[in-house]
Amino acid sequence: VTQRELRSGVTAAVSGFFYRHPWAKLLLLLLPAVLWLVVLYLGSIAGLLVNSFWSIEEFTGLIDRTFTLSTYQDLWVPSNRDIVLRTLFMAAAVTVACAFLAFPLAYYMARYASRRGRFVLYLLVLMPLWSSYLVRALAWRQIFAREGVLYWGLGKLGLEGVLDTLIQAPVVGGSSLIASKISLFVVYTYLWLPFMILPVEAALERVPGSFLEASSDLGARPGLTFRRIVLPLAKPGLIAGSIFTFSLTLGDFILPTMFGSSEFYLGQQVYTQIGVVGNTPLAAAFTFVAMAIMIVYLMIAKRGGAFESL
Amino acid sequence: MSARDRTGAGLGLKLASIAVVLFLYFPLAIIVLYAFTTQSSSFTFPPPGLTLEWFRVAFAREDMWEAFRLSLLVAAVSAGIAILLGSLLAGAVYRSRFFGREALAFIIVLPIALPGIVTGIALRSTISGVLDVPLGVYTIVLGHTTFCIVIVYNNVVARLRRMSPNVVEASADLGASGWQTLRHVILPNLATALLAGGVLAFALSFDEIIVTTFTRGSAPTLPIWIFQVLFRPRNRPVTNVVALIAVTVTIVPVLLAQMLARSSDDAGTGMGAGGSTPRPRQEIPAE
Hints:
The complex is a heterodimer.
Chain A: H1 3-20, H2 22-52, E1 55-56, E2 63-64, H3 70-75, H4 78-111, H5 115-130, H6 133-144, H7 149-157, H8 160-167, H9 181-205, H10 209-217, H11 222-251, H12 255-258, H13 266-277, H14 280-303
Antiparallel strand pairs in A: 1-2
Helix pairs in contact in A: 1-2, 2-14, 4-9, 4-11, 5-9, 9-11, 10-11, 11-14, 13-14
Chain B: H1 11-34, H2 53-59, H3 62-93, H4 101-113, H5 116-131, H6 137-162, H7 165-173, H8 178-207, H9 210-215, H10 222-229, H11 237-266
């Protein structure tokens, strides 16, 4: 028996074994990724959950590994509760803004652009998504600077005063444009916009043109057709996009250090608790708030058929 | 929408679409512009003068190159592992029925659907709290691979769905072993999907900063390096130069991968299950 024959014999035997025992093949295919994602990843998240039920001793700073709900009680302290609410509010505002900005372009891409034009637009939307988000945030610091292009442009139009008034507004304002919530909101909206455009476009693309024609043939004005036909059919895309805009805002801790006032956001608080204070249980509890929000959101989204548009 | 509207878009819609595209690109133009400004600590518009000096300064910084090399290494290794695990997983989930399949499909999406900070601190507490492994290059790769798997998986599953099951049966009927079918039929059909998925995973890893913050040791990756020099008052345009490098390293391969995915679809391999050639759709990844 030559080496070659032996080898092909072994290959055939192995092939045959897997053919006769499909479960063995399945197991082999599944095992590495399941170990990674279920054991390592989900295991880590479970470990984190356990952490959130521990507490930190105030004087020693050591972690006390006895079961307690005190960390979750700490979440209810007004300052911590405000962080959660502030972050949720920002995430919701950003999501709505993204939806409004995404719709016209997505609609144009799906309904009017030629096949080639649509691919070009698709690439144009995709490219910013793939350029570093830190880089794009950096650009906004340079745009928003007092000597920068925005003030220059408004100065040419004589509208600097409008912006300055806006900055002095309560709640959303700040000591400068960069130090105001407005800038944080604009930059988040800018950064997550492509995540909204792409799924909305995908959903709109599946709306048959004949539906719109039928609607107008039956006497509906464009506004009614939009509300009753286009919008409901675009909903899975909007939900899919909002998963990203929401999740990304909840988990971000970089942007609030670059824009906005000294008020904390959820991600930032997690980062500070784990990196500076060393209070892992509180950081874990905060992450669980973010995770619980997202899981509820994902479950609703799954029911709304958003996963098809992801 | 399947039927193109031949009457054309209204002026308002066209203008709104153009405005959104401009909004997306304006900041990138600003990054390019200020990489050449002559001022070292402010961003006056219009810039008082243009210079190539900052490119020289940036290229001379050894710490930048170290961060750059670390990012390249991490992204290449993470994408490599993700290609392997993601395609095996796609092969298992596609067309098989087993207990927990739905749950698994849900778990795969979690690393990109959940906030990055969750992945970051969960892995960190396991790595240093339970496994007691020192944080470093390996642990960055560990974190990155976790969210890269889904990118490859999505691309491969999409391709498998378009591939006719008949070709595999035909191959078996013609006497090919399972291995030969994999080697000569399935892999060539998957090649561009694997490449596209791998490139996207690479790009995602190269730019990642949130998970990296929690899983890295002392050495910074390129995004971390940029973040660290961001608030230094002097030589600010250097950040823009490095930012340009970072953007180029990810954009160019991603564009090529997109073109590739499209051209391989348009060429029509004859494997399309539905007959017509579907539009390429990369699944959308998150940061």
